[in-house]
Amino acid sequence: MQIQIFTVGGTFDKIYYDALSDFHIGEPMAPEILAEARVTFAYQTESLLQKDSLEMTAEDRELIRSKVADSPARHILITHGTDTMTLTAEALQGITGKVVLITGAMQPARMRSSDAAFNLGVAVGALQALPDGVYIAMSGRIFEAGKVKKNRAAGRFEES
């Protein structure tokens, strides 16, 4: 199995600098997490954007869509900010012949108490089992695009 990983920023890759929450989006963390897990499947990573998802535009989503559609890989994993990943998932609907999974983190992967590694693992496992379509892997669950929302108050994703 070959997985194409596209990173677009978000909390998954954030680096915080001070107590005022000053941050920037750092280098992708997915390859480091996968190396630590000693995975045996082939993957390649391409950083498309380094943005907080609240700053993403329609043009950014079109870039993501074109990269996914043009990729020769059938299995696509996207690390994305949690605030607007549902919008990107909906923008990717209709791409055929691929399993596309979007995941993110509520806490940066660089933090000890992050959910990033768990979410990435759930996403990789789901990529191998799901039929073609667009999905979100968050909160230990897999959701179909268009049928999920972020519950900010509870700090989790749930069916919409």
From TrEMBL:
<dbReference type="InterPro" id="IPR037152">
    <property type="entry name" value="L-asparaginase_N_sf"/>
</dbReference>
<dbReference type="Pfam" id="PF00710">
    <property type="entry name" value="Asparaginase"/>
</dbReference>
<dbReference type="GO" id="GO:0004067">
    <property type="term" value="F:asparaginase activity"/>
</dbReference>
<dbReference type="InterPro" id="IPR027474">
    <property type="entry name" value="L-asparaginase_N"/>
</dbReference>
<feature type="active site" description="O-isoaspartyl threonine intermediate">
    <location>
        <position position="11"/>
    </location>
</feature>
<feature type="binding site">
    <location>
        <begin position="82"/>
        <end position="83"/>
    </location>
    <ligand>
        <name>substrate</name>
    </ligand>
</feature>
<dbReference type="InterPro" id="IPR006034">
    <property type="entry name" value="Asparaginase/glutaminase-like"/>
</dbReference>
<feature type="binding site">
    <location>
        <position position="53"/>
    </location>
    <ligand>
        <name>substrate</name>
    </ligand>
</feature>
<dbReference type="InterPro" id="IPR036152">
    <property type="entry name" value="Asp/glu_Ase-like_sf"/>
</dbReference>
<feature type="domain" description="L-asparaginase N-terminal">
    <location>
        <begin position="3"/>
        <end position="154"/>
    </location>
</feature>
<protein>
    <submittedName>
        <fullName>Asparaginase</fullName>
    </submittedName>
</protein>
